[in-house]
Amino acid sequence: MKRIQKPDAILAMLRLCSYQDQDFMVLSRRSLLKYSSLLGLGATANALLPTLSKSSLKASAAMPLTMQLDWKFNVQFAGPLMADHQGLYADKGLAVTLKPWESGMVLPEVVAADPMTIGCAEQNLILSAQAAGAPIRAIATMFQASPLALMSLPESNITSLQDLVGKQVGVHVDGLQVMELVKGVSGLAADALEVTEIPYETKYDLLLSGEMAAIQCYAVDEPIGFKAKTGIEPRVLNLSDYGYEAYAQVIFAHADLLAQEPEAVKQFLAATFAGWQKTLEDIPGAAQMVVDSYVEPGSKYEDLAYQTDSLMLVADYMLMGIEPAELGMISSDRWSRMAERFAEYKIIDQAPALAESLASGFWPAA
Length: 366
Hints:
Layout lengths: L8 H9 L11 H6 L7 H19 L2 E6 L9 H8 L2 H4 L2 E6 L7 H7 L3 E5 L1 H9 L4 E8 L4 E5 L15 E4 L4 H10 L8 E4 L5 H6 L5 E5 L3 H9 L4 E4 L9 E7 H6 L1 H20 L1 H11 L10 H16 L12 H13 L22
Parallel strand pairs: 1-2, 1-3, 6-7, 6-8
Antiparallel strand pairs: 3-10, 4-10, 5-8, 5-9
Helix pairs in contact: 1-3, 4-12, 4-13, 12-13, 13-14
């Protein structure tokens, strides 16, 4: 096994404080202000020097880790953002940098290439990479079910998958095989639904015009956006109710990191889910924090009402089917069942062995 090379104190501090310009975009506004003296900002920098000196010394002793998210900063990641904002990672002896997704980024590839990066992604993407030999393991999950869903207009009276038989359903390229799985597990014939690939840009128009009876959506986000744009509250069919029992926002790490730094990984998870616990205790306050400190200026996520409503839905997916004490838990039986189902419906090439896919002992796993 290749040994992870840890940076010494100086390199750790440089990693935290001497980013290239584009990397500053991933820091919270609070963190950016904290380290602004390193950019030579005159009197402001001088005023901050005593604080920076102490924080830099503390950071140099902490283990640097990166958490690479699979989308932009918004309330879907309120737990780790809360942990960062309140210093929960630092309290665990970690210097964690949170990074939003960038165009073209494939999360399993990023983590496989850098053992000091921890990622989050959908279960099928992790399984597919593992089947191809990527040395990554799932260790916990943020969502207990996938928010992948179909939405329709209220006047259509579509309340079940059966109501879509013989109708046009628009999905994106990643939803084509998922719909095959959903139809198969639900006992519907392969041609029962007319499933068509549609682009993101015109999906709302296709639904409003009636050309599509239902369209693919991410249930914690897009129905809210659709209502804000059109004034219409759509009906939502959750695919998790029809055989798509996948986990979402699964946290995964490099096998080398798990083998060589298990305590650091445990502390990372403890801080992350402590952040989620604080988030769930005060959803409006957490949404405000995300909007004020992390959302990219000019983003649609600056809408506080939108983010608050979205976080309420996120909370449902965080706790779906479990008790609060089981936050983040992955069932090994369900993980394996979905791996086999993904392979059966050709969403992944093959189901990896459980021991090479799900790592136990880092966070509760049944």
